[in-house]
């Protein structure tokens, strides 16, 4: 009799939760979107680009007015650089009238996050006016680690489960 391990159950639940009925995503991706398709322009207004010195560094998600949730490792080496958040973009490389760039006034890493560790890899950014894993329209995770090449089957993405940190997020936002 097979005994299900925790990892197997989490993978199975993730596949079911994201509505993936096949393993088609396991094929080497041809574009920048893994296991999905390009969204309709501005269909997901909560998506953010965290930028360091004008260059996209990580994805993020708008969780409240003036607050974006991302991964703490994104700013580990950006101490003296300008950090901004881009909202309203469908394409990072094309001009769009809907794009809005906000300076980050405050970066609040999770108190237990540590450089080089994937544990507690969360960061809240406060702007002057915020790479999420979204399943069924619900924020499930923030990218913590993975290959620089999206879809690398030898080094899959690792995500921090956002729901586990809701108390911390709410305490910072309060």
From TrEMBL:
Instruction: Give the UniProt entry's GO cellular component terms.
Output: extracellular space; secretory granule
The GO annotation for biological process reads: complement activation, alternative pathway; zymogen activation
What does it do? Serine protease that initiates the alternative pathway of the complement system, a cascade of proteins that leads to phagocytosis and breakdown of pathogens and signaling that strengthens the adaptive immune system. In contrast to other complement pathways (classical, lectin and GZMK) that are directly activated by pathogens or antigen-antibody complexes, the alternative complement pathway is initiated by the spontaneous hydrolysis of complement C3.
The enzyme's E.C. designation: 3.4.21.46
Q: Which domain of life is it from?
A: Eukaryota
Where found in the cell? Secreted
Gene3D superfamilies hit by this protein:
Trypsin-like serine proteases
**Key word Secreted present:** yes
Query: Which Pfam families does this entry report, sorted A to Z?
Result: Trypsin
PANTHER family, alphabetized = COMPLEMENT FACTOR D, KALLIKREIN-RELATED
Name of protein: Complement factor D
The protein's organism comes out as Aotus nancymaae
